[in-house]
Amino acid sequence: MSPDASPIPAEPVPAPTAACSTCGVYRAARLRKLGVSVGQWDHVVALAGNPNTGKSTVFNALTGLRQHTGNWPGKTVVRAEGAFEYAGKRYKLVDLPGTYSLLSTSVDEQVARDFILFGQPDVTVVVVDATRLERNLNLTLQVLEITPRAVLCVNLMDEARRAGLQVDDRQLARDLGVPVVPTSARRGEGLPVLLEAIAGVAAGELVVRPHRLSAEPPALRSAVRELVARLQAAFPGLPNARWVALRLLGGDEHIIEALRRGELADLQAAAPSAVSDPSRQDLESRTIPA
Q1: Angle at CA of residue 226, ends 225 and 229, nearest 5°
Q2: Is 199 in a helix, a strand, or coil?
Q3: How many CB atoms lie within 10 A of CB 130?
Q4: For 184, which DSSP code?
Q5: Is 129 helix (H, G, I), strand (E, B) or coil?
Q6: In this structure, which topology does domain 23-212 adopt according to CATH?
């Protein structure tokens, strides 16, 4: 262009349209990985799942390959946390220990169960292996008994396809009553949709009606009703008193001991503090290999 030539005016960039919200590229562009630079956050997201489901890969993909690690208070179980920003909201992501159930038969299960129940995260993302859904859904149903604010992440879809398996995510979502998102986290596949689902549940924009046991067996019904009333009277604000009552009747030693010692309220108070202090001296940043 000669010095005397008039510059070509730049064309205005069009504003995002309604169609953009369904575009994976647009959704991914709204993600900002914060690593361990959390500061203040708008929502807390728990990441639960069986071991070897690619849970850490999902964590790394959302937070930028960094975790804030240390021990859960009073436990030897490693705690990992990080953060991301999506659509202008900041999320703290807590990677819970990999467990097969929440029945508190091990320290890992106890830590995961207590955080989901007493910590009351805004969203619990359950990561399952698409090639082993039958085994993984046991934990999913237990999580849904505790909290309705859940998203199911069906990971390792690439392996499922190689094995000739198909997952009907729409039917699964109808059956479970929560959003279901197929992903292959190591390829980045499905993560934009997962972010959208997390944001929707956290903001209350997605209606969730999780599948739960519709009614207790007749022999338990009156006992559960009476125990729930007593728990609510003794511990006002106790989250999901019905689930706690069922665990007491089921002989959960951890819950029974906490009740016997008058520490049930302490469990509720302790769970959120596990992620509320980013300046703890026993934490360090490290990368968890995918």
Answers
A1: 90
A2: helix
A3: 25
A4: B
A5: strand
A6: Rossmann fold (3.40.50)
- Strands 31-35 and 78-86, sheet pairing: antiparallel
- Mapped onto helix, strand or coil, the DSSP state of residue 118 is helix
pLDDT in tens, the chain (290 residues): 444 544 444 444 344 454 444 444 445 557 776 655 556 889 999 999 999 999 989 999 998 855 444 445 555 466 788 899 999 999 999 999 999 998 867 888 888 888 998 888 999 999 999 999 999 999 999 999 889 999 999 999 999 999 999 999 999 999 999 999 999 999 999 999 999 999 999 999 998 999 876 667 788 888 989 999 998 888 887 888 888 888 888 888 888 887 887 767 666 555 544 344 443 333 333 333 33
Whole-model pTM over 0.85: no
Positive or negative: CA dihedral 111, 113, 116, 119: negative
Are 45 and 92 in contact by the 8 Å Cβ rule? The answer is yes
Quote the tokens at residue 71.
């021990």
